[in-house]
Amino acid sequence: MNDKIKYFLVKLISITFAIIIIISVFYNLFLAERLENIDKVLSLTKKENRTYVKDKIRHEINKSLEKETILNVDDKLLLYKFYKKIKKEFSDLE
After folding, report:
1. What band does 15 get if pLDDT is binned at 50, 70 and 90?
2. Rounded to whole angstroms, how far apart are CA atoms 15 and 19?
3. CA dist., res. 43 & res. 29, Å (int)
4. Are the C-beta atoms of 13 and 19 separated by less than 8 Å?
5. Which of 20, 63, 75, 93 is within CB 3.0–4.6 Å of 71 for a Cys-Cys bond?
6. Which pLDDT tens digit goes with each residue over 32-73?
């Protein structure tokens, strides 16, 4: 009887440690980086963070202007359909 309890407790402790390790690895590999990025976005109240975001946007715009085409075909179609729909809604206002 005692051997069964010891075996059960060893299995329980092993499984508990394995679950803790798996959760820790999952958090560090996947969630920590994303949470850090979310924190950066949410902390836009600080002036240096706003400046960083503006510089990053400018850099990305300059990088896209150097390319021959900015949008792929699917994006162009989607934006064009969106533009036509908005144009139609504004024409209904008049």
Report:
1. very high
2. 6
3. 23
4. no
5. 75
6. 777 777 777 676 666 677 788 888 899 999 998 888 888 888
Distance, first Cα to last Cα, the chain? 87
Integer angstrom CA distances of residue 79 from 63, 82, 83, 89? 21, 5, 6, 15
Question: How many helices and strands, by DSSP H and E, does the chain display?
Answer: 4, 0
The answer to whether the CB of 42 falls within 8 A of the CB of 50 is no
